[in-house]
Amino acid sequence: MTAVDAVVERPAADLFALTEALCAVPSVHPDEGALTDAIETRLRARAPHLDIVRSANNVVARTAFGRDRRIVLAGHVDTVPPNANQIPRRDGDMLHGLGSADMKGGLAALLGLAERCGAVDPRFDLTIIWYEGEEVADEANGLRHLFASDPRLVLGDLAILLEPTGGWVEAGCQGTLHMEAVFHGSRAHSARPWMGTNAIHRLAPVLTRLAAASIEAGPVTVDGLEFREALQVVRVEGGVANNVVPDRAHLVVNRRYAPCFGPADAETQLGALLDGADEIIVRNNSQGAAPNLFNPLVAEFIGTLDLAVRPKLGWTDVARFAAHGVPALNFGPGDPTLAHTAQECVARHEIEGVYGVLARFVGIE
């Protein structure tokens, strides 16, 4: 049996084995096609109750039970590049390997939910999405393209992304901003530097200011959750040769900002720290998402199932749903601190636990 065949054939009753099969199929963007094909083939064979739409390497499966409210469940099929961990390996009830936590354990749970919901009478209509291009530039993001091309396919009353959260609800997410500051100088021979202006030296006051601000960045409370903001210089470049005074230098700063701030606020605040630069360029700015803990569906999901809650400190696609008026949460199997590392792994009980919580919430346990 090939790795792709295993994704099609593994029973949903064993989500751990299904996760292992999903991990065995490489899916680094832009090569998600084989895995997406397998997911689509499996759904068409096992879930005739679903309306299935394939768009590029995205699969959307929807019920049409006529319920008043619709829950959206989603997970990305791509992984980061391998780090000597591309072959999945079991150690008892622990699965090691690329994508095991981020987020093929979540994909397995989604397949189980999709197949189960036709056998019972769920209290919500469901939209379940497997999408491409989350781990790369925003332009490749499958959800981005689905919202742009046919938003009715992905809208609902609550969205839950099965990002690895260790079984916690990670509410909302922080915004992320990259700004570039450019400094000009004039070239001269390094033996006669007084004849030029060193652009790299002109970085010094701004770097000092940013370093101090990065230490001072503290938590910001939103809906009772503490979002710990972060500010880091992530790139510095300049110089043309070892005997030339550089005439140009630039730095890139990444700011992670609490969801109580809008993109314009974040740019104004960071721009003040870059005072003295000759040019300031916004490279990208993705707004965060409010926790929305007082939304009735969010409160019901957390409260009736007695789930632990913490803020999401990174950026995830919950922000994409929030921008379209859909409250959204992160909730999935796997330790988020191990995502993108060679030590990535997920436990059987985590996958089964997340599946169980979601099945109870939507009424298909």
Could you explain how this protein is built, in words?
This protein has helices at residues 3-9, 15-23, 33-46, 100-116, 142-149, 204-216, 263-273, 296-304, 318-323, 348-362; strands at residues 51-55, 58-62, 70-76, 89-91, 94-96, 125-131, 158-161, 169-171, 175-184, 188-189, 219-222, 225-228, 230-238, 244-245, 248-257, 279-286, 309-311, 328-330, 345-347. The mean pLDDT is 96. The strands form 5 sheets. An 8-stranded mixed sheet has the order 1-2-6-3-7-18-8-17, sandwiched between helices. The protein is an alpha+beta fold and 365 residues long. The protein has 2 domains: 3-172 and 289-362, Zn peptidases (Aminopeptidase); 175-286, Alpha-Beta Plaits (2-Layer Sandwich), CATH 3.30.70. The protein starts with a helix and ends with a helix.
What is the tally of helical segments? 10
| Strand neighbour order, sheet with most strands | 1-2-6-3-7-18-8-17
Helix and strand sequence: HHHEEEEEHEHEEEEHEEEEEHEHEHEEH
CATH topology of the largest domain: Aminopeptidase
Terminal CA distance: 31 Å
Task: Label the CATH architecture of the largest domain.
Answer: 3-Layer(aba) Sandwich
Shape: elongated
Residues in β-strands, percent: 25-35%
Number of domains: 2
Which superfamily, in CATH terms, is the homologous superfamily of the largest domain?
Zn peptidases
Mean pLDDT: 96
**Count of DSSP strands:** 19
